[in-house]
Amino acid sequence: MPRDRSLSTFQKIALAVLALGWLAVVVGSQFAVPPLIESAFDGESSDWLNTKIANHRAYRVGAGLDGSREWYAAWSRGYATKASALATLFAGVAGCAIGLPSVRRRFKRFLFASSAPLNLAVLRIAVFGMLLYLLRTELIETYAAWPREMYQFPLIAGWFYQFLPITPEVVTPLLTIATVTTVLAVFGVLTRATTVVSVLLGVYLIGIPQLSGKVNHLHHLLLIGAVLACSQCGDALSIDAIVRAFRGADRGVVAPPHRAVRYGLPIRLAMLVLATVYFFPGFWKVASNGPQWVFSNNLENHMLQKWFELETYTPPIPLHKAPFSGVGGALFAVVFELGLPIALLWKRSRAVWAMMGLTFHNLTNLLMNISFITLQVMYVMFVDWQRLLRWVGRRLLGEPIRVLYDGNCGLCRRTMAVLGVFDWLQQLKPVNALQRSAVEDDGLGFLEDAALMQDMHAAWRVEGRGAGDGGAAEWGTAKGFDAYQKIAWRVPLLWLTLPVIYLPPVAAMGWKVYRRVADSRACRVPTATKGAGQVSPQRRWSWKPLAVVAGTILLGQCVLGAGRLHKSWPLACYPLFDQIEGRSVVWPEFEAVTIDGERLPLDDDPVREMLGSARYVAPMKSLIEIPVDEARATEVLARFVEAWRDAGELPTDESTIERIVVSRARYELVGPERPAEPAEREPGFEAPWTAIQAAAEKSAH
């Protein structure tokens, strides 16, 4: 029977309201935004907007960019276009959700697909492994020692950081606790508790370097980590899984958890978090500039700017010199970023876009030395690891072997349950020897009950030996310690034992130990069983915390993405790179002037080494703003002096220094190498040495 494709009255009204709202925003923005921005330029709008435009103009002029009224008139028209694009995006998505049932069905199938617990566990190890890497590599304690006056609190983070202590005395022990809990989360020890603690401490600790004035976009690790903390990500590849297997065996359950929506839903929500990371930068590239961002020299100019900041980096493979590399690379980036949310809805397109994403990041790393390794590792979520490992197991080892065990023996059940935890290739099929029907259904009726009760058996089909005839002629069997040897071939974790367990002394000792344990196990046989060998109902799990946390994250990411708010923590729009770059850059140059008038050049390399290439740019540019904030600039120079002192660039007798001079130098960019000399210099900011020393002493106390 064909589906009813007619719209309900409510849907028709909703679509009409949506269309009217879209039209109002598009028309209103085109006629309201330009006059508003121009009046703010003249100082005739609201105080807030007047100040905002004045600060923005000061930044542009300080960076050597156009700050004229004509530029702001064009800029206001661009904002009107952005508002129209945003309204079109919202209306399009909402309209499809309301008016197209096929879109809702497709999204539902995507979101509520089942997955294996192993897949969720791999994502857990990737996320918390990368989080551990950040805890050990981010300069958390360095920035915790900064004076509070130097911090620039990002959006959202400012609401709670202003009330939290940020000192080395507080941060150092918390960093130790975070490291321990994150390691435990990686190994799956008390997973529910350790993942929560790791994420909460990660938000606080990794957020401290974000107060430096430059927000590094590492948010996805903590956001996906928060999703995992509300899931059963410890049901595989974990110590918890081993403990749970022991407990389940005591209740008669030996099979590991099976594929279910509870394991697939967190992975799909993590994919949606990743989609928000990519989509809005791609959207704003197009919405802000139209085709100009792609079909121009813009991408090449972005590379020139990055090469200048790195100073010494040259792409090992000069792909940027290939014809149409700039336009081709820009088009590839936009298609990937905009297409990912749609590509997620189909399995094949997900695989294609995952390969595109890895290509995108590795080309960016090759050309601009930006690896985004923490994002690349997240691509493990696009692989069905359980099915991949199962396929590898079938190709290498054939079909699974049957392991027949005494279902009325607690030791036997525990052994099978633990083996199931490590059966990543799905090469073991447990068969309860007490259930004769199950034994016969597998074609193993030729095995006698008395033998099965005495020893564990392993059985496997032998090609070419009575194939298709059934019975003993078709099967190879092993029992006791020999069965464990056969099992070891099928369990990757036991492969390391293979060179040892076949040695005659080890095999003989193994048989003796097995025989002793097997013959004495009767004293531990329980008086009743609960369907040993069968899969029990899944552990109780509530989807509500996951829905609340993931919904809040996705909503926040979309709001901040729509608002272009990238200086935010722990939610944020990711770097847009939507500006049209030129081939010149204004950069600070430093000199120490002595009492005798001698001028000693100071390099910025030690500063880069101290703060890292990703974060030293923001404080550098704060020194060439017009007008410059002299108090903050002096504090920044006090931090720079530490780097110059350690590098031996300051005079041995620092009392001879009178002041530090910062000049504004404009460079014309032509290639990966930083030009030896600027095209022009102009005076900038001067800080007395006594003021710098006072700022340093204030920081120390």
What does this structure look like?
The protein has 701 residues and is α+β, with helices and mostly antiparallel strands. The protein has 4 domains: 91 residues; 292 residues, no CATH class; 123 residues, no CATH class; 117 residues, no CATH class. Helices cover 57% and strands 9% of the residues. It has 28 helices and 10 strands. The protein has a 4-stranded mixed beta sheet with strand order 3-2-4-5. A hairpin with a 4-residue loop joins strand 7 and strand 8. The radius of gyration is 32 Å and the shape is globular. The relative contact order is 0.10. About 2% of the residues have low confidence.
CA-based shape: globular
Give the low-confidence spans.
523-537
Structural class: alpha+beta
Name the beta content range.
5-15%
Q: Write down the overall mean pLDDT.
A: 86
Q: What composes the largest sheet?
A: 4 strands, mixed
Helix content estimate: 55-70%
Q: What is the alpha-carbon Rg in Å? A: 32 Å
Q: How many structural domains can be distinguished in the coordinates?
A: 4
Terminal CA distance: 78 Å
Give the spatial strand order of the biggest sheet. Answer: 3-2-4-5
Number of strands: 10
What is the count of DSSP helices, taking H or I runs of 4+ residues?
Answer: 28
